[in-house]
UniProtKB/TrEMBL annotation:
Top-level taxon of origin: Bacteria
Gene3D superfamilies listed in its UniProt record: 3.40.140.80, 3.40.50.20
Residues covered by the LpxI N-terminal domain: 8-135
InterPro entries registered for this protein in UniProt: LpxI, LpxI_C, LpxI_C_sf, LpxI_N
Membrane-spanning ranges: none
Listed name of the protein: UDP-2,3-diacylglucosamine pyrophosphatase
Domain LpxI C-terminal: 142-270
Amino acid sequence: MSPDPGPLGIIAGGGLLPVRVAEAVAASGRPVIVAVLEGHGDTRAYPRFTAQAFRWGLAATMLAWLKGHGVRQVVLAGTVSRPSVLSLRPDAAGVKLLARIGRAAFTGDDSILRAVMKVLAEDGFEVLGAQQVLGGLLPPAALLAGAAPDDLARADIQRGIAVCRALGAVDVGQGCVVQQGLVLAVEAIEGTDAMLARAAMLQREGPGGVLVKALKPGQSRLADLPTIGPRTVENAATAGLRGLAFEAGGTILLERDATIARATAAGIFVLAFDPAEYSEGTTP
């Protein structure tokens, strides 16, 4: 008999993903302990669970709190904006933790995540990906909604993948909007929804653009995977886009049925793509 893994700890940002993970794990009979990152998530989203909010500067206190509840495995889930230096206000333990994280705390998102996961491992935690505890999050390559992209849309997807790879190489973002070969917007610290709002003001006449989401080169699959859901579809439709394309096997699809239904109602396609089919040199 395998040893009891104990409660699952969730370090929760905003959005539905950490809530869904908590609910699924609890339904399996395993206790769940939720550490909510203040300013990103809300403890009120976890009424059934032991949950407490912690600001960034109390990260060391948060880890001690998780350990005190018997947590050995943790999932990092939800949307999180990297804090500014002045907002941290660390306590004494937090200062020591920041010293261990080092410069990564103030560089790209993937850099800080790698550093945080290294610290977690050094402190005896095992980091799990949300997809390891909540099945069906990462769709394989398939057209999930709408008509298959035409040659122009395929060319926009190919261009978008190249842009995402370039952004990811410098640890900036995981998405962009391309219309007729023109890059209308790229995702940075503001996130996908704000990027789509900006793209809506920049759309050109003619066939609408495509939102493309892809992993950063070499990105860890344990946290901060690209994510889409019903709200992404709504914002894409509002922005005049005709499709969403995301990397198969590496992008989280939240509320699959609702996302597909809304895309179908809006008349836009949702495509989980195999990057090999859209690599440079591939004819659209």
